[in-house]
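Quick note —
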Amino acid sequence: MTSFWNDLPQPFFILAPMEAVTDVVFRHVVKQAGAPDIFFTEFANATGWVHAGDKAIAGRLIKTDDEQPLIAQIWGGEPGDMEAFAKHCAKLGFNGIDINMGCPAKSAIKSGGAALIRRPDIAIAAIDAAKKSGLPVSVKTRLGYTYVDEWREWLTAILKQDIVNLTIHLRTKKEMSKVAAHYELIDEIVKLRDEIAPQTLLTINGDIRDREHGLEITRKHPGVNGIMIGRGVFSDPFCFRRAIELSSVEEAVTGASSPVSRTPKEYSEAEYSSTIHHKSELIALLHYHLDLFDHYQPTLGRPFETLKRFFKIYIRDFDGAKELREKLMHTTTTDEVRLAIANIRDL
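Predicted structure written out below.
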């Protein structure tokens, strides 16, 4: 089937799905800092939704119309549940379904995630079930469960399912993120894809820092179609931004479709200077994050404490940053955070 995947620039860039990170708030933060070509949601469990409804997925599928294209990442081990949930995602207006077959978390491998690497029969059934939604179906997985050399047999099984995109985190489930990603396998994986499913796009994930790093990988490894960045966004929230955008930062970071109350004029030019790691710009982005959190919190219902994992993104690389982060970890409201950072905006 043809879909938005066929019209993407190459290489395309994707914000990786990250549990308790890539919700509607943080996706908008990244979009404003420098948008990827595709957004993924957090992981949403099909079986949980089937049995308990929306309360089981706790706002993971909340989205807005200005997030395009947006893929619902789902997981589970029961094909019937996957079918029902994928059809629900189609009704909600998502642009595609991505099945998580690589999450190493203990809660996930009880019925899905990386456990499917050991159950290719269930993995194949899950793909077939999700396709009944009418949406394009992709898969995100790892090289293997325990051993790196599992990759060929496992990826062969998935590539035979005629999915639109295969994202490979270049580690095994056992390796977690404790070793370097296995870039040495990229060319062999491209060759396997070309032999089995040349129509399937191939996306690489693991240790990719930013757009320039991703472009370097695609130059070295022809045949790679996409780059997915996950943890890199914590080191550089502007990691997706193109060089050309540096001359129009204010426009890129304060789009007119912003759902928050602050207007672009309320952000000074200094806050969005063209130096991507400039302290003022990071602080301005934190203010934007706080505004978004306040806007969506009544809908998401997520406690203030969930914000604290993000402070290290913005408060860094300047004198006193460590002490300020420690202070922010003791705040209890967004207004307290704003007060704590008020005096550093002009430094």
